[in-house]
Design a protein that fits this description.
Blueprint: E1 3-11, E2 20-25, H1 28-37, E3 47-52, E4 92-103, E5 109-125, E6 132-137, H2 146-165, H3 182-192, H4 197-204, H5 209-228
Parallel strand pairs: 1-3
Antiparallel strand pairs: 1-6, 2-5, 3-4, 4-5, 5-6
Helix pairs in contact: 2-3, 2-5, 3-5
Length: 246
């Protein structure tokens, strides 16, 4: 079992290996994290871990709250996540490698990172200026028939795109633009589908690639059938994820 200790960045979204994560960092605990990462030599990876929030908030309250307007805002690295922050997060997350960390004149940061490796959360430390975590790296097991399943998922994904974005959508990916490596397919489709966070989290923590692809195949067929019966459903851009506030 390989473990690593990294800064921890909780989000209200799921990061998958290979996917790009843009961040607008303005809260002090995460600004402190970025200042620390900037001290890492440029020829070394500037890594942090992203976990989806199970119960809590990306941004800690910064003003008196409701229903008690006199309540003081929470401070510190674990603000908004309760007495035991580990319980507020899903157990499986993803390591992010920050390719770009740019500090603005007002002290906030613009960050562009890419998901690399799945990890399991073992413990969370809130004693410093930002959260850190002990993490166990999770291998990606292909499972049985991953190649054939990936082909089926790609076919279903193209139909899903056509139904959701419209056959004339210029940004619609073609066969040549989509990968064929099963694990890459599984993560790309998981990130691109219009799914809620619990479902995306389930896909992230699938025991192997084949299991994730089987789940995606069921989801794609179900979602495509729903869209087929709802022709007025507004189109959505599939290749762009929401930028986190933090």
């Amino acid at each position: 079992m390989t473990t690593v200790r990294l800064p921890l960045f909780p989000l209200n979204s799921v990061l998958f290996p290979g996917l790009v994560l843009p961040l607008n960092v303005f809260e002090e605990r995460y600004r402190a994290m970025m200042r620390t990462l900037l001290k890492v030599p440029e020829d070394e990876p500037r890594r942090f871990a992203v976990v989806a929030i199970r119960d809590g908030h990306e941004v800690a309250p910064s003003a008196p709250g409701m229903p008690d307007p006199t309540a003081l805002p929470e401070r510190g690295p674990g603000a908004g996540f309760g007495a035991d922050p580990a319980k507020a997060f899903h157990a499986v997350g993803c390591v992010a490698d920050a390719a770009t960390i740019r500090e603005r004149s007002d002290g906030t940061f613009e960050v562009l990172a890419t998901g690399t490796t799945r990890v399991r959360l073992r413990s969370v430390d809130a004693s410093g200026p930002f959260l850190t975590a002990e993490l166990e790296e999770l291998p990606e097991d292909p499972g049985d028939e991953a190649g054939a399943l990936a082909e089926g998922v790609l076919r279903s994904f193209r139909q899903y795109q056509k139904r959701l974005a419209g056959a004339r959508e210029r940004s619609l990916a073609t066969g040549g633009e989509l990968p064929d490596e099963p694990s890459v397919v599984s993560y790309l489709v998981a990130a691109a589908m219009m799914l809620d966070t619990p479902t995306k989290q389930r896909l992230l923590q699938a025991p192997d690639t084949a299991s994730r692809l089987r789940d995606e195949l069921k989801l794609l067929r179900a979602e495509t059938a729903i869209i087929r019966n709802l022709p007025s459903l507004p189109a959505a851009e599939l290749t762009r994820g929401p930028t986190s506030l933090n």
